[in-house]
Specification:
Helix content is 30%, strand content 19%. It is an alpha/beta fold. A hairpin with a 4-residue loop joins strand 5 and strand 6. Pathway: Amino-acid biosynthesis; L-leucine biosynthesis; L-leucine from 3-methyl-2-oxobutanoate: step 2/4.
Length: 166
């Protein structure tokens, strides 16, 4: 899995209320949720980003409530992946469940700037900042998690297994 897009840079402790505000939680459709992504933090974010862009963050991304709406909104907006130094555990699990690729790296990502062109090789655990010709490493997913994300998450995985009679 190779993902490419412009960097959309955030700092530390980006909580689920900043990702998708509570007033939008009556919605469950990921496309509709995505229209309000980061509305309170960066009101014009949706108009500034392009489908396929990659969120780059610091520590504790997705902290706060355990709402599944947060990774759904990110996915629904068209973000291709999130890479950060750490994620809240429940956010990480919810992201995998909905098929949003997220990656953890111990490398310092502060040199990545808004708009830098990034490429992620999920299988090899490599992030390349093509704008600055700099490479970062992360632990790649085990094959079963990579497959789960590639097919769109736990729902699609279960549906496929049921249809196959497994």
């Amino acid at each position: 899995m190779i993902l490419e897009g412009a960097a959309r840079v955030f700092g530390n402790n980006i909580d689920t209320d900043l990702i998708i505000a509570a007033r939008y939680l009556a919605e469950t459709n990921e496309i509709e949720l995505g229209k309000n992504l980061f509305k309170d933090l960066r009101p014009n974010f949706i108009n500034e980003m392009n489908k396929g862009d990659i969120i780059v963050a610091g520590n504790n991304f997705g902290c706060g409530s355990s709402r599944e709406h947060a990774p759904l909104a990110i996915k629904g907006a068209g973000i291709s992946a999130v890479i950060a130094n750490s994620f809240a555990r429940i956010f990480f699990r919810n992201a995998i469940n909905v098929g949003l690729p997220i990656f953890v790296t111990s490398e310092n990502l502060r040199s990545i700037e808004e708009g830098d062109l990034l490429s992620i090789n999920a299988s090899e655990g490599i992030l390349v900042n093509k704008t600055k010709n700099k490479t970062y490493k992360f632990d790649p997913y085990p094959e079963f998690l990579l497959n789960l994300v590639e097919i769109g998450g736990l729902f699609n995985f279960t549906k496929n297994r049921l249809e196959a009679g497994v």
